[in-house]
Specification:
The complex is a heterodimer of chains A (122) and B (110). With 122 residues, chain A is mainly β. Helix content of chain A is 0%, strand content 50%. The N and C termini of chain A lie far apart (40 Å). Chain B has no helices and nine strands. The chains are: A mainly beta (122), B mainly beta (110).
Chain lengths: 122, 110
């Protein structure tokens, strides 16, 4: 079955960097677009970034553009979120999620990880 | 990338039906039929309920239905059950090739 496991969360100070990883299994990873979605404590969902199945395109929310980078390593079945210049308002649970259909840009996420907590605090 | 507008809360008694609205703009819902709905129980990851405005993934109850008119999408939950109590989020593709979520609606089953 599809499994997504995030790792790399933790506590950092404002201005520091952190890299999240999401290890995928149970499906042909290289065929699917992957997203990162975050949820601040007690708040709603906020879409963060997407990388297409062939890595030909990446898109970001305005709130993280220029600071966050999404990438993938199909040989490791892993998607990453490199976060730099972190701010207090980046504090959230970060979920990775898989798109519903392979080999196309299809903006629906049908499998989600359990989330990784990132806390930015001085 | 403005969030879509949802009511903060809705409620209904078991067996009743409720509808949650989701209003967007020309940058998202008005211009695309890539609308989806997610359900999230406390402490859990979201689950895809509806995609392509009206379609249900396999395994999702037929009590969940959805529609779109102009710039407003709607989710209807029929025959309310206790397990439907959760947060519900709408989402839309945007003109910037990004996604945007609504602020979320808490459904309370009385």
């Amino acid at each position: 079955q599809v499994q997504l496991v995030e790792s790399g969360g933790g506590v950092v100070q404002p201005g520091e960097s952190l890299r999240l990883s999401c290890a995928a299994s149970g499906f042909i990873f290289s065929g699917y677009g992957m997203h990162w979605v975050r949820q601040a404590p007690g708040k709603g969902l906020e879409w963060v970034a997407v990388i297409w199945y062939d890595a030909s395109n990446t898109y970001y929310a305005d709130s993280v553009k220029g600071r966050f980078t999404i990438s993938r390593d199909d040989s490791q079945n892993t998607v990453y979120l490199e976060m730099s210049s972190l701010r207090v308002e980046d504090t959230a649970v970060y979920y990775c999620a898989r798109e519903r259909q392979p080999y196309r840009d299809y903006p629906y996420m049908d499998s989600w990880g359990q989330g990784a907590m990132v806390t930015v605090s001085s | 990338q403005s969030a879509l507008t949802q009511p903060a809360s809705v409620s209904g008694s078991p067996g009743q039906s409720i509808t949650i609205s989701c209003t967007g703009s020309r940058s998202d819902i008005c211009s695309y039929d890539f609308v989806s709905w997610y359900q999230q129980h406390p402490g859990k990851a979201p689950e895809l309920l509806i995609y392509d405005v009206t379609k249900r993934p396999s395994g999702i109850s037929g009590r969940f239905s959805a529609s779109k008119s102009g710039c407003t999408a709607s989710l209807t939950v029929s025959g309310l059950q206790a397990e439907d109590e959760a947060l519900y989020y709408c989402s839309s593709y945007t003109i910037s090739s990004t996604l945007t979520f609504g602020g979320g609606t808490k459904l309370t089953v009385l």
